[in-house]
Amino acid sequence: MGGKNSRETTPDTSYQRSNSVTYAARHQHAPAPQRRLDRRYSRIGDNYETLEQVTSALAQAGLESSNLIVGIDFTKSNEWTGMRSYNGRSLHSVGALQNPYEQAISIIGQTLAAFDEDNLIPCFGFGDASTHDHGVFSFYPDSRPCQGFEDVLSRYREIVPQLKLSGPTSFAPIIEMAMTIVEESGGQYHVLLIIADGQVTRSVDTGSGQLSSQERNTIEAIVKASNHPLSIILVGVGDGPWDLMKEFDDNIPARTFDNFQFVNFTDIMSKNVDPLRKQTEFAVNALMEIPSQYQATLQLGILGARRGYSPATVPLPPPSNDILRSPSVHQYHVN
């Protein structure tokens, strides 16, 4: 996803929200002994066929509201991974019509809006020249969340012209950012939506049967995230390839519960069927594991609990934030 020769040295610091509460140094503890999970949650299947079935299952699971976090991939490969699926244009090209990233955000937003009662959505970018594979940047200079998906889309359009696509690609920083937010919320249930254009970076120097540092860090982050009430949905846009994403979905060992769902946005949206039907199929595929994942966090006793060993992550400001408009500061608090 990112450039082959990208290098970066973004330092790790602590996460600070706009109300000046510092998400900084925290004591590191060994993970608490884990309860034995019902086998049906160790590998959660794709269970539903209609959006109504998913919505009903969410309600039956007791999920009345969730907190959303959005992560957007700004690696350089977005310039060419739309060669087949997006008529050769950059997947981040901004014009009169929505690009694949905007389409995915809009459809998920329409579906999950009813479950995000405070309408505050922390949004982050990764893989650009400021973050590479070591960090994330917030959509707002003071790290406050976006106010609904319309604000997400608006800020996305303002940010895209100001940044430089780069790499390499790792999902570890955005997953660690999400774990920090979950921990500081007191263990509230969150859904992390990552929209990305392909694989985690795998160098030509990585031998057969070995993992690149980006692959290893991503897998470790997914495993650690399963100790938190956090579901991860990775939406793939562009041409792929997607084989490693499917491995992440099905075959990562040692997780407390199956916390990761991969959805091939391009495959669904390229079908020759009614647009509304495609949008529904995409939403169903993205959300179908959420009811069982939420039930797993209840059974494991990790919902509503601080784990005490999440990363302490701070986002950078958005690229060229002096150019971006900055409305009056909106404080948001963890309840």
UniProtKB/TrEMBL annotation:
<feature type="compositionally biased region" description="Basic and acidic residues">
    <location>
        <begin position="1"/>
        <end position="10"/>
    </location>
</feature>
<protein>
    <submittedName>
        <fullName>Putative von Willebrand factor, type A, Copine</fullName>
    </submittedName>
</protein>
<dbReference type="Pfam" id="PF07002">
    <property type="entry name" value="Copine"/>
</dbReference>
<dbReference type="InterPro" id="IPR002035">
    <property type="entry name" value="VWF_A"/>
</dbReference>
<dbReference type="GO" id="GO:0004842">
    <property type="term" value="F:ubiquitin-protein transferase activity"/>
</dbReference>
<dbReference type="InterPro" id="IPR010734">
    <property type="entry name" value="Copine_C"/>
</dbReference>
<dbReference type="InterPro" id="IPR052079">
    <property type="entry name" value="E3_ligase/Copine_domain"/>
</dbReference>
<feature type="region of interest" description="Disordered">
    <location>
        <begin position="315"/>
        <end position="335"/>
    </location>
</feature>
<feature type="region of interest" description="Disordered">
    <location>
        <begin position="1"/>
        <end position="35"/>
    </location>
</feature>
<dbReference type="GO" id="GO:0005634">
    <property type="term" value="C:nucleus"/>
</dbReference>
<feature type="compositionally biased region" description="Polar residues">
    <location>
        <begin position="11"/>
        <end position="22"/>
    </location>
</feature>
<dbReference type="InterPro" id="IPR036465">
    <property type="entry name" value="vWFA_dom_sf"/>
</dbReference>
<dbReference type="GO" id="GO:0016567">
    <property type="term" value="P:protein ubiquitination"/>
</dbReference>
<feature type="domain" description="VWFA">
    <location>
        <begin position="65"/>
        <end position="268"/>
    </location>
</feature>
